[in-house]
Backbone:
């Protein structure tokens, strides 16, 4: 099945930062989590996908079309939620409807107002009087009311309380019930992604560390924990990253089952996403 | 594109009080002007001022709301985003000019030829100012761009000051009449050229660099 979103060797060079050979794809009916520490390149990647900044190299295809050549047609079918509200605080939800119905050909007023009702958002209240969670829900309603096929969220759940985050995540799961749709969801809150993502792309220092199915990651990657002196006796080639403390070492293994056989005397736990991120960010190559 | 124009119009709501106060001030000037030509002079000033307030505020509110990143994710080509602002400003300035003529017609049961010429001149000056202001807004942002406009406004004053200091002859009646007649054409040409420049700045400015500091 053709992916809804596909990046191949995408590059972007800045004087102090570069994205290098970013490749991943998002198939229909799935949620991809884009993770990485602050400054890893998540937002730049999203801006490149949206052609808000021009890539220096590589290919970006959305719905099988080049994202630059067919930019307008593609954007008719994309919903975007950014990490902060972009509508003036003086606007009301009904103003957002009035503006966006003139922007999107497929804008569905009734659907927008249904979302407002579902989210308990007043159409007459000024946006500046909404809570942060309410503003995020308004942005989601605005992103969904033209029935997009691809939803892109950039840190949309950061700053929300757990209840609000849970509501947003439920909405994403509901969105992909229609299997012709997909979600790209950038976040550094890995627990959110563990709950809803089908696959995960991990960016670190402007590069893709991995882009894999989440279940595969959970099944295969592991963390070996041992004393600092014990670690010196192990084969460094078996570990992707190691974090050395004064007394203890944590080492990331790509093949947990294989490592368990080889190092039967050691504790090797499944590797949660935040631990993987931490080991890549703070650890060193073994 | 009309959606973006509507957004800018909705921004006006934020300045309703200031605008009403300005209108009241000019209304008082209009009523107490004593003559039709003085009244039209008072009214023509408001065209320039309100047009500049509308356009400068639209840029500033966009910046405050961080609208640009969202706007660029919408299915509107970049040149149309720029065009929306130019068209709305043109429409706003034209509507204000027509309203001042209508006001004069209602108050004095007619419009003087001098009044119409003064309104046309104000309309031209407002577009000329916007022609300078908009590319500066797209290039430097709303804070620095206002300085550019102030410098632009001060240039003719400086020019005249230098002329008088150097004991050179000041532009006479015929020169002023020529400038006055050419002003609408000059403004229209500058406004058109300014649109082209803004399109280029907006396209290259957004594509070259990331918007916002996050990576």
Residues:
């Amino acid at each position: 099945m053709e992916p809804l979103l596909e990046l191949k060797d995408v590059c972007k060079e800045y004087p102090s930062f570069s994205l290098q050979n970013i490749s991943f794809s998002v198939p229909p009916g799935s949620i991809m989590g884009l993770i990485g520490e602050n400054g890893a390149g998540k937002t730049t990647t999203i801006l490149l996908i949206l052609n808000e900044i021009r890539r220096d190299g590589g290919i970006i295809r959305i719905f099988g079309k080049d994202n630059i050549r067919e930019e307008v047609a593609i954007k008719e079918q994309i919903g975007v939620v950014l990490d902060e509200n972009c509508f003036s605080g003086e606007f009301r939800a009904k103003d957002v409807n009035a503006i966006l119905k003139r922007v999107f050909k497929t804008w569905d007023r009734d659907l927008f107002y249904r979302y407002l009702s579902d989210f308990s958002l007043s159409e007459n209240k000024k946006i500046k009087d909404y809570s942060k969670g309410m503003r995020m829900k308004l942005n989601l309603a605005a992103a969904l009311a033209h029935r997009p096929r691809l939803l892109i969220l950039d840190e949309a759940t950061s700053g929300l309380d757990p209840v609000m985050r849970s509501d947003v995540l439920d909405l994403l799961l509901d969105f992909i019930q229609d299997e012709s749709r997909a979600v790209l969801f950038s976040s550094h809150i890995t627990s959110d992604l563990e709950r809803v993502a089908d696959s995960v792309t991990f960016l670190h220092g402007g590069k893709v560390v991995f882009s894999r199915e989440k279940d595969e990651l959970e099944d295969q990657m592991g963390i070996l924990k041992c004393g600092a002196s014990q670690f010196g006796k192990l084969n460094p080639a078996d570990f992707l990253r190691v974090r050395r403390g004064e007394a203890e070492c944590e080492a990331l293994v790509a093949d947990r089952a294989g490592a368990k056989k080889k190092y039967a005397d050691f504790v090797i736990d499944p590797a949660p996403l935040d631990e993987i991120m931490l080991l890549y960010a703070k650890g060193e190559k073994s | 594109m009309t959606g973006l124009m509507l957004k800018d119009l909705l921004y006006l709501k934020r300045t309703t009080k200031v605008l009403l106060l300005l209108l009241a001030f000019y209304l008082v000037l209009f009523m107490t002007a004593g003559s039709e030509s003085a009244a039209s002079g008072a009214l023509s000033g408001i065209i320039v001022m309100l047009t500049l307030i509308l356009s400068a505020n639209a840029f500033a509110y966009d910046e405050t709301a961080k609208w640009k990143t969202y706007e660029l994710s919408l299915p509107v080509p970049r040149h149309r985003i720029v065009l929306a602002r130019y068209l709305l400003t043109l429409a706003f300035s034209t509507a204000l000019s027509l309203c001042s003529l209508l006001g004069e017609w209602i108050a004095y049961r007619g419009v003087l030829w001098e009044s119409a010429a003064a309104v046309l001149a104000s309309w031209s000056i407002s577009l000329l100012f916007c022609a300078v202001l908009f590319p500066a807004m797209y290039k430097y942002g709303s804070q620095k761009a206002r300085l550019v406009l102030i410098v632009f406004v001060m240039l003719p004053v400086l020019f005249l000051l230098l002329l008088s200091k150097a004991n050179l002859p000041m532009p006479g009646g015929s020169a002023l009449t020529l400038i006055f007649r050419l002003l609408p054409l000059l403004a229209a040409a500058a406004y058109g050229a300014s649109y082209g420049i803004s399109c280029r700045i907006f396209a290259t400015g957004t594509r070259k660099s990331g918007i916002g500091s996050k990576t």
